[in-house]
C-alpha cells in the first residue's frame, strides 16, 4: 500500500466524525424556559414587618477574642509629609480619636 495524502476521504464515516447537531422538538421551538424569559410583571415588595427578626441566642456560644493594638511614633517621613497622630491610648484598654475624644474603642 502506498501512502496517500487524501486518506481522510477514504475513511469510513463514524458518529464521532459527524458534526453534532442538537435534535429539535416541538416543545423546544415553541417555548423558552421560565428562567430565560423576561418577567411579565413585577410584584411589589411587602413592607417590613413590625416585629423585629429573631436574633440568635448569643449566650449559648462564647468566644474569646484577643486584640492587640500597637502604637508607634510617626516616622521622619510621616512627620516631613505633615501627618499627625490620629489616635491615642487612653489607659490600657481604650483608644480615642485625637480630634474627637468622644470617638473611642474599648478593649477589655
Overall pLDDT score: 69
pLDDT < 50 runs, ≥5 residues: 4-8, 35-39
Helix and strand element order: HHEEE
Count of helical regions: 2
The Rg value, from CA coordinates, equals 36 Å
What is the overall silhouette? Answer: extended
Q: Care to count the β-strands?
A: 3
Strand percentage: 5-15%
How far apart the termini lie comes to: 90 Å
Give the class from helix and strand content and strand pairing.
Answer: little secondary structure
Instruction: Give the helix level as a range of percent.
Output: 10-25%
Q: Numbering strands along the chain, what is their spatial order in the largest sheet? A: 1-2-3
Main β sheet profile: 3 strands, antiparallel
InterPro entries: Kinesin_motor_dom
GO molecular function: ATP binding; microtubule binding; microtubule motor activity
Organism: Cocos nucifera (Coconut palm)
GO biological process, one term: microtubule-based movement
Brief account:
The protein is low in regular secondary structure.
Walk me through this protein's architecture:
It comes from Cocos nucifera (Coconut palm). Belongs to the TRAFAC class myosin-kinesin ATPase superfamily. Kinesin family. GO terms for molecular function: ATP binding; microtubule binding; microtubule motor activity. InterPro entries: Kinesin_motor_dom. The protein is largely without helices or strands and 108 residues long. 10% of the residues lie in helices and 9% in strands. Strands 1-2-3 form a three-stranded antiparallel β-sheet, with no helix packed on it. A hairpin with a 6-residue loop joins β2 and β3.
Amino acid at each position: 500500500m502506498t501512502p496517500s495524502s487524501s486518506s481522510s476521504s477514504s475513511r469510513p464515516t463514524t458518529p464521532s466524525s459527524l458534526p453534532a447537531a442538537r435534535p429539535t422538538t416541538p416543545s423546544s421551538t415553541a417555548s423558552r424556559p421560565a428562567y430565560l424569559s423576561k418577567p411579565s410583571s413585577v410584584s411589589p415588595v411587602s413592607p417590613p414587618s413590625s416585629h423585629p427578626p429573631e436574633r440568635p441566642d448569643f449566650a449559648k456560644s462564647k468566644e474569646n477574642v484577643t486584640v492587640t493594638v500597637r502604637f508607634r511614633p510617626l516616622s521622619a517621613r510621616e512627620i516631613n509629609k505633615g501627618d499627625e497622630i490620629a489616635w491615642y491610648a487612653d489607659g490600657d484598654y481604650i483608644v480615642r480619636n485625637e480630634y474627637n475624644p468622644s470617638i473611642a474603642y474599648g478593649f477589655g
